[in-house]
Design goal:
The protein is of the alpha/beta class and 232 residues long. Helices cover 34% and strands 25% of the residues. The protein has a single domain (11-226), classed as Rossmann fold, CATH 3.40.50.300. The strands form two sheets. A six-stranded mixed sheet has the order 6-7-8-3-9-10. It binds adenosine-5'-diphosphate (ADP) and magnesium ion.
């Protein structure tokens, strides 16, 4: 009798190398993020944090090493297969919220579902329910320009979670928010991930933001290592 297989880690990186114009930005990077785990990634500007997120998402090819997300070897997929895997398994939150200006809040949130083949009425229903979970019940038909920065980031968070991804990648998600709005957004992110079970890799400069992580890592020329100096 065999034991049930434990779920694959949310993220596994082994010996990842990435060069731009012959210069290694990442070299020999290893990382393991468990299901449901929240990891903060700190590091100087230009150290390669955004590049690392792009490699995890399969947005760019690695030059060496392996990237696996929820058991799928992203680094072995071609661009089309990576895009289709990304749509189903990964949610993104950016500093610039990247809402589509010509779509209302619910339709912005519905985009990942539509891309995954969910029919429009069901997608809008799920998007509206997700908006309610981030405190935006009643704002489903608001246009992005009618929403405050904090509200726009909550729409972006709803969009990142609506398709129940195994992994959320966030690149400076509170970089454009004032401290109190940022604190609310972070509490919301932590709570939403707690209930969805999605893992998080969060790039941030902020100790406040890093505090929602279970683990803090610092990226520099030597790779990734634990960083607990950032605990508030
Ligand atoms: N597409 C690209 N082409 C060339 N160089 C790039 C590209 N993307 C990033 N870089 C370079 O790689 C380094 C790391 O960039 P980045 O990952 O954006 O750092 P961080 O997010 O930590 O500030 C920088 O020197 C940047 O100029
Ligand atoms: Mg960056």
């Amino acid at each position: 009798m065999s034991l049930p297989a434990s779920p694959a880690p949310a993220v596994e990186l082994i010996g990842v190398r990435k060069t731009f114009a012959g210069r290694a930005v990442l070299d020999g990077v290893d990382l393991n993020v468990r299901r449901g785990e929240r990891v903060a990634l700190l590091g100087e500007s230009g150290s390669g944090k955004s590049t690392l997120l792009h490699l995890i998402a399969g947005l760019e090819p690695v030059d060496a090493g392996m990237v696996r997300v929820a058991g799928t070897e992203v680094s072995a997929l071609d661009a089309d297969a990576a895009a289709s895997f990304r749509r189903s398994a990964i949610g993104f939150v950016f500093q610039a919220f990247h809402l589509l200006p010509h779509l209302d809040a619910a339709r912005n949130v519905a985009v990942p579902l539509l891309l995954n083949g969910v029919a429009a009425p069901a997608a809008l229903e799920r998007a509206t329910a997700m908006l309610a979970r981030v405190g935006l019940a009643g704002r489903a038909s608001a246009w992005p320009r009618e929403l405050s920065g904090g509200e726009q980031q909550r729409v972006a968070l709803a969009r990142a979670l609506v398709h129940a991804p195994a992994l959320v990648l966030a690149d400076e998600p509170t970089g454009n928010l004032d401290p109190s709005t940022a604190a609310q957004a972070l509490a919301l992110i932590a709570g939403a991930l707690e209930s969805s079970g999605a893992a998080l890799v969060l790039v941030t400069h902020s100790a406040q933001a890093a505090a929602i992580a279970h683990r803090r890592l610092r990226l520099d020329a030597r790779g990734l290592r634990p960083d607990d100096a950032t605990l508030p």
